[in-house]
Specification:
This protein has 586 residues and is of the alpha/beta class. Helix content is 28%, strand content 15%. It is built from 17 helices and 19 strands. It has an 8-stranded parallel beta barrel, surrounded by 7 helices. A 7-stranded mixed β-sheet has the order 1-9-6-7-5-3-4. It has a two-stranded antiparallel sheet with strand order 2-8. Strand 17, helix 11 and strand 18 form a beta-alpha-beta unit. The longest helix is centred in the middle third of the chain and has 17 residues. The structure holds ligand TNX. The site of ligand TNX has 10 residues, from loops.
Length: 586
Amino acid sequence: MPTNPAAPETGPQPSDTRSTSPSRHVPAVPLPGVPAPAAELARAAEGRAAGTLAGPAPVRLGDLVPAPEQVRPDPAGDFTLSADAVLRVSPTGRDVAEQLAGWLRPATGFPLPVTDTTEDGPLTLTLSPADVAGPADAVPAATSGAADGARLGDEGYRLDVTTGGVRVTALTPAGLFHGAQTLRQLLPAPIESPTAVAARWAVPGGTIVDRPRFAYRGAMLDVARHFFAVEDVLRVVDHLARYKLNHLHLHLTDDQGWRIAVDSWPRLTEAGGATEVGGGPGGWYTRDDYRRIVTYAARRHVTVVPEIDLPGHTNAALVAYPELAPTKIAPPPYTGTEVGFSFVDPADERTYAFVADVVGEVAALTPGPWLHLGGDEAFKVPAGSYRAFVERAQRLVAATGKTVVGWHQLAPAAHVDGRVLQWWGTDGDDPQTADAVRRGARLILSPGNHAYLDMKYAPDTPIGHDWAGLIDVRRAYEWDPGSHVRGVPAEAVLGVEAPLWTESVTTLTEVEYMFFPRLPAVAELGWSPRETHDWSGFRSRLAAHGPRWTTAGISFHPSPEIPWPHKNPGIPTQPTPHTRRTTPTP
Ligand code: TNX
């Protein structure tokens, strides 16, 4: 069997890389041999030489991110995946089983055929309400509250590992998918290798019963300030799915570029899509590109939330169609990073024809239930006109059958059915938003000072902003979505989202650097029960993901807060096609 030169075989093996001792393995910064952040980024982009890795550590049941709801380890029940393993699956779970096999084949080198059958085998994935509860004694009484299959809901799963095999059960394909991601994390880190590695593929024995705290768990990618090609977006979807995030919000339009084709207004992309921050070539998604993204995401149980930012952040649209501008004169294309200067004319009927056409076409292309209207930073629109514009635009979205999402600046506008506000404030005292919630709105929480992944980690982070403060991993983790905004009860919180604005983020490597390790922190806030919240446990569970990212060629910031088990984290072990600046879609 060929061995992977990137496999973590060198270096001393710490006796327990998952120690919860806060100071163990924490490199002082700067460490000799640990590059400065700018150099880190450059080296990550080049995919230069591997860091020194510790050997693969065995994973313990429960060493997962996000933390599962219930865990009952059984040290006598460890399972080892062997070359003759077969994935048995009930027919409705077949697609998840194929994806699981696809994750496990490269590193194991095993064929892992998928067969439709209800019989038990070494790897069994079943979608069956009757199976979910499992043996009555599988989970101890003290923690058996959700062992009842019916309570697993839309996304929960149960995973049983015995010496004879692994069985994942769920009520839905989404639940089965999350269970499969859990199983992937329970295998040792070399499972992330793109080529075959000789390793013992052990899975820790016991039972996990797990389901999410919040229904909406997302990240946002701003493809308007800098354009990201379809392949980059697909890779971002993979990153979300690993951490059980189920929504990808695409910020598709802004002053610097219009990124989604609209057949009835073709110049939006032809003229409005050819720019980006800094003067680069920009780009846009054709209808087929966008369909590819939503289809790829759907297979990974990720719903795409398209955002058309209105009435502000519209310079690119005004370049394309000057009749939408209050002056009726085309502004020059904008490639800077200021905000709040542009807006579509709220007093012109053509504006509403434009909004109706755009949201109609985008809604028709989007399988998910949401359409995000933006609404932020329309500083030049007087409050009364802003409100009237938003109320009309909300009705146009509702007419497409989609549910309105918008930044919390939409709060003063009248409620429409199901309306969701995305809160990005930095002070949890926001009476206007609390009032909108009393009138029926639900909230997605993206507090700027905790969840904004475009904020720098530290003063010397080479890219990013700091207007909402510095956000290290602990800051990204230490808040509670259920009680963050005064006067907003946990029941009104639909979930959490980590936005990544890209004024200074230009490549997929840089996206990953800003995502990791903070994205998993926000993912855990969205998924895990509050009772599991514990910084010291989290940082130690997260540490074990460094070798996984390194092996998978995913860039990350080797934050000094995390007790990484290897000496030179943050550098992919091999160049990957994803670490280049991608070419825009024509
Ligand atoms: C504010 S947050 C914005 C964006 C910027 C971001 C930079 C929000 C809804 N609007 O236009 O990109 O700050 O951090």
